Amino acid sequence: MDRVDMHDLIVDDRVRGIFRVNRRVFTDPEILEEERREVFDRSWLYAGHESEIGDPGDYVTRRVGGRPLILVRDDAGAPHAFLNTCPHRGNTVCRERAGSTRLLRCFYHAWAFDLTGRLAGVPDDDAYTPAFDRDALGLKPVPRLESYRGMMFVSYDPEIESLVGYLGNARDYLDLMLDFGGDEVEIVPGSQAYSMKANWKLLVENSMDGYHALPTHQRYFSQYLADIGMDASNWAGPNRIQGIGLALGSGHAVIENRARALPITGTAKEELDQIRARLVERVGAEHAHRIADYSRNLFIFPNLILISSWHTIRTFYPLAPDYMEIDAWANLPRGESGELRQRRFENFISFLGPAGFGTPDDVYALEGCQRGFAAWREVSWSDISRGMGRARPSSQDELQMRAFWRRWHALMQGLRGPTDCSDCPEQREAAE
Ligand code: FES
Ligand code: FE
Questions:
Q1: What superfamily in CATH does domain 167-431 come from?
Q2: Could you tell me where the beta strands, DSSP code E, fall in 112-150?
Q3: Full-prediction pTM beyond 0.85?
Q4: Which of 84, 86, 93, 140 has most ligand 1 atoms within 8 Å of its beta carbon, as the pocket-test mutant?
Q5: What is the pLDDT of residue 85?
């Protein structure tokens, strides 16, 4: 097999305004291995939300960065993230997706661990010699676990900078995403878990791709929204509202559009008005406008997307160059009425998920790209130049994708310092 020269995989010509990505990056198993080492294992990865493990003993299990994890809250209230593999002979210690327990007991030989991961019980342990070290045989924690406003991130790099430092300029946008419900937001029980026969980086691009929305999701924008009484000219035609795209540094990025309120009436509308009034009281009218009247897709490098229109948290991980698994959750204000919740769910599933008007379109599009990449040797480059060099790129442009690719490219070449993710100095100023 010919060796990959990472440097040649991306053409980033800021003078001529051309940005191209070699399609080999979507198909090559060697590149995926390198991504696991250089990108995923050196980043902060979203693992879960503290509201999912609200009480001592509550736990959830999931795969994060390719490893099986247990997220559990101990008796003192502290969250932990343990690798879900038994120190005895390797079995999965916790087999359920979620639950509540006093002891985490391995099914295979019944070793049991307390909520801080300490080995608490070994059946027939008089068979072991004095050298058998119980203290060293607890559940292994991930090297780093930090939370930001309830969002738990893990890293497999013990030396990584703090989570807040890593978030950098993206933190302000994360705050805007989370402020809509105050600090009282919670993950709604249950998730959407699905997969795609497509490279994971295609979903990074797609999740903040304003350009695809109208042609790909035609039914949603020109039929469904019109059917529920919304003005389709907001999205199509010469008067459509233009949003912005920003590179936030370190590969993070955001697209932002003016939000259009859904036609909600009755008591749910009154409740929404009260939520707005409380928000204005808390942060002032101007900041409340900034929080509530814009829709944003925020990308946190390398694999986390928050979408404000549906209050969604979405993350994904590749199992093969042409296959990824995706998990998505709804993140909503605690304590709202059943009726408002129902309206929010309807909004969520009208676009997202297997029966939505959005997700199946995107799966179809991305799997189609992946099929096309079988011809990568003959048709070798994807173009991501849209809006390149514009001082104020729109959400229909592709700066937000170039930001991801520039950071990805730097890490894949072993460059560890900060990465300039913008096309030009004006864009850098706009993001600060
Ligand atoms: Fe877990 Fe033996 S593998 S107790
Ligand atoms: Fe889409």
A1: Naphthalene 1,2-dioxygenase Alpha Subunit; Chain A, domain 1 (3.90.380.10)
A2: 112-113, 119-121, 144-148
A3: yes
A4: 86
A5: 98
